[in-house]
Write a structure and sequence with these properties.
Elements (H helix, E strand, L loop, with lengths): L7 E2 L3 E5 L5 H8 L2 H6 L8 H19 L3 E6 L5 E8 L7 E7 L8 H15 L5 E6 L4 H9 L3 E6 L8 E7 L3
Parallel strand pairs: 5-6
Antiparallel strand pairs: 1-2, 2-3, 3-4, 4-5, 6-8, 7-8
Length: 175
């Protein structure tokens, strides 16, 4: 039985759960300089390793929770530009919203458009009441985007198996 997961459309974008056929794109994104600098090297060095990454790191959460990593596709030409999603991340209580785009698609409003849609889905489709976002002290663009979609800086934290202190942003539904 094939399970159907939610997809989303904005004015310019189509967001759908990342699938095995996105391996070429995932390989490119995970090895882009800003991904490695801001998120970290995932040691995905081939298309086959990207397929395995999708299968082991992305698909289990999607199957378990019904949400995860969305591939962001430009409607006008079908180009895969980035990813945006909700992550059940080790070391964080609750769900983390995250985003990353290939360099040529940055600074065009795509990340805001995608993250706004994912934030809306988190609240209205998945009924999440506590959403977090993490970023490095140096990543001003991500800090600004997290604020723009409604999260506020809460505190500095460190994740398991990482010595670097990062910024934790948070949105909590008002009661």
């Amino acid at each position: 039985m094939k399970v159907s997961y939610k997809t989303y459309d904005t004015e310019r974008l189509h967001l759908r759960p990342t699938a095995l056929h996105d391996a070429h794109f995932v390989y490119e994104l995970l090895n882009s300089p800003k991904w490695i600098q801001n998120i970290g090297d995932r040691n995905v060095k081939s298309i086959d390793m990207a397929r395995e990454y999708i299968n082991v790191k992305m698909m289990p959460q999607l199957k378990r929770l019904g949400f995860g990593n969305f591939t962001v596709i430009r409607k006008s030409d079908g180009v895969k530009m980035g990813s945006c999603g909700l992550y059940d991340r080790e070391g964080l209580t609750g769900v983390d919203i995250g985003f990353a785009f290939l360099p040529q698609y940055e600074k065009k409003g795509y990340a805001f458009e995608a993250a706004s849609q994912v934030m809306h889905a988190a609240i209205h489709d998945f009924n999440l009441t506590d959403i977090k976002g993490i970023t490095s002290k140096e990543n001003i663009a991500s800090q600004n985007l997290l604020k723009k979609i409604g999260l506020s800086f809460e505190k500095m934290i460190t994740l398991p198996d990482d010595d670097d202190e990062i910024m934790l942003f948070r949105w909590v539904k008002e009661k």
